[in-house]
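Hello Y.,

Per our agreement to keep a running log of every chain we model this quarter, I'm adding this entry. I've kept the format consistent with earlier entries: sequence first, then predicted structure.
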Amino acid sequence: MSAILSNSEKAFLVVGATSNIGAGVAKGLKKTGSNVTALVRSEEKGKPFKDEGINIAVGDLSEPATLASAFKGIDASFILTPPNDLAPSLFSNAIWAAKQAGVKHVVRLSAVKAAHDAPTINSRFHALSDSELIASGTTYTIIKAHFFMQNLLMAADTIKSEGKIYMPLSDGKLGLIDSRDIATFAVKVLTEQGHENKTYTITGPESLSMKEVASSLSKVVGKNVEYVPVPIDVAIENMRQAGLDNFTLNILHDYFVQYSKNWGDFVTSDYKDVVGTDSTSIEKYFEDNKQVFE
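Predicted structure for the entry above:
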């Protein structure tokens, strides 16, 4: 049996490091004293990581030949792929490179309720990658994260100018989670034993309607904020005119339809069970980002 390495002896690779969540994972791992490398597509994109003492490897998930050197000598990796129509192939390139390099543990950020029979295309795409990871024989941990609180930023302008949140979610409730908590959770399962070959679903501490979200925000910013439900087709057309691509529009349409039907009305204890503290409340999220909304 091989010896269990301490975190300071392990080499971690963060894939998707330039996203907010990936950057949070890289910085969180660095704080544990670990040897951390961020995969970036150019030296320029790697500069912020170098400034914080994080190594960089230049590579591109769409170019498999660039990945072998990035994964060489890596013990564990966090892999996050972008939400586009190439996501399953990009993850496939990453897990193949990881397996060939002998990476011992892969932590993958999946999507809420990812399943082959899910009613949302993004969840079905993530299910493909989840299945490939499980079948790869590599020790895995899969994190299925709920609707990000940060998605509320899309309403920041109208909150500031009109005191209104326009969303096509009807009266549906959601177990929203702060994306900062996703990074914290990922660092925990990467650096502690006991999470091997497990799948977690992480949520915020409460399932809330947008009306309840607006009420919480009103208290934080000291002015009345109202939720105004928008028809889904109107919202999608507005987003189309704003320049969103068809694949993203399809993803959003599916989620809006399902969340309006309370598909997201649930919370789990997985975050607290692993991290030991409650996930961030909506009030705390708004307090931390008050300047964006007031």
